[in-house]
Amino acid sequence: MSATGFLTAGFSGEFVLLIARLIADHADLDTRLDRLSAALAQAGLPLAMAGLLDSGDDVLQLSLPHGEKAVLTAAIVDHFGDCDLLVADHEIEVPRLFVSDMDSTMIGQECIDELADYAGIKDKVAEITERAMQGELDFQSALKERVGLLEGLGEGAIDDCLADRIRPVEGAAALVATLRNKGCRTVLVTGGFHHFADPVAEQLGFERVVGNRLAVSGGKLTGGLAGPISDASTKLATLEEEREKLGEGARVLATGDGANDIPMIQAADYGIAYRAKPKARDAANGRIASADLRVILKLLGIPRSEWLESVTR
């Protein structure tokens, strides 16, 4: 089966129930595709069509008349390795809503871990963070415990941390800007803190921010939070609230990396786990192993000529 000999983007696909897109290396592509096709046929998932998208990138699209997303995903990973991948039960299109986690997704750091370094307790806090993101600890309890350890830290450490430690993931600004230019609403929702999320959202071009607030008194962190906790349920509720505003049929993209992102990832049409913890990755119908978030634009079929590098202000 030759990938270049099959249909490219734009086919009607009226009989198709499953579509997968993956970033495929051209080396041995036909051989791997033949083996995947045989494996899918043996599993009762016949491959109807396969071809490279005409958007100018190495995106291979597979179309099947029936099957389960999880089975298709497992087969693709088995034959193509830990690739960048998106599976949907409809024609993939540009979403009208993008909801994203912040820490280790839009930025490369966990803010609370970096802030804890200014208090000399990064290792202790980072261990709790990792266990919470793996789904081993209750998120709210873990958050309160970590924030409590920061009691007495000067508020100025937040500005220092932002300037010295916090950096966007490669391609984050381009992803947001390009989606917004396509008419997509963009929302940053985090279990982290507005002290960090607000400037990050401003830098990247997000239109709304939802997160936690660190309590401050006398220029120092009190070790508590101000207002309700933003957690997994908040992320899901934010996604549903924003989707309802757009009306029926609006496609939603959600990205995250940890256990508290799972509900919103599962609720999205395109729930993409970015370099994620195993539980989040397994819950998603998309997964990104690459560092550059622009790969999501590739999977959505947006040509490079239409990518923007930042939001025009």
DSSP strand tally: 12
Structural Rg:
21 Å
Number of domains: 2
Overall average pLDDT:
92
Report helical residue fraction. Answer: 25-40%
Order of helices and strands: EHEEHEEHHHHHEHEEEHEHEHEH
The order of strands across the largest sheet is 2-3-1-4-12-11-10-5-6-7
**CATH T-level topology of the largest domain:** Rossmann fold
Oligomeric state of the chains present here: single chain
What is the end-to-end distance? Answer: 48 Å
Q: Which shape, going by the Cα principal axes? A: elongated
Find the CATH superfamily of the largest domain. HAD superfamily/HAD-like
Which structural class is indicated by helix and strand composition?
alpha/beta
Content of β-strand: 15-25%
InterPro entries: HAD-like_SerB, HAD-like_sf, HAD_sf, PSP
Enzyme class: hydrolase
Keywords: Amino-acid biosynthesis, Hydrolase, Magnesium, Metal-binding, Serine biosynthesis
EC number: 3.1.3.3
Task: Kindly summarize this structure in a few lines.
This protein is of the alpha/beta class.
Would you kindly provide a written description of the structure presented here, covering whatever features stand out?
The protein has 12 helices and 12 strands. By secondary structure, the chain is α/β, with parallel strands linked by helices. It folds into 2 domains: 3-88, ACT domain (Alpha-Beta Plaits); 97-306, HAD superfamily/HAD-like (Rossmann fold, 3-Layer(aba) Sandwich), CATH 3.40.50. The chain has a 10-stranded mixed sheet. Helix 10 (262-267) links the parallel strand 10 and strand 11. The longest helix has 15 residues, at 232-246. It starts with 17 loop residues before the first strand and ends in a 14-residue tail after the last helix. Mean pLDDT is 92; it is low at 1-14. Pathway: Amino-acid biosynthesis; L-serine biosynthesis; L-serine from 3-phospho-D-glycerate: step 3/3. One of its GO terms (cellular component) is cytoplasm. This is Phosphoserine phosphatase.
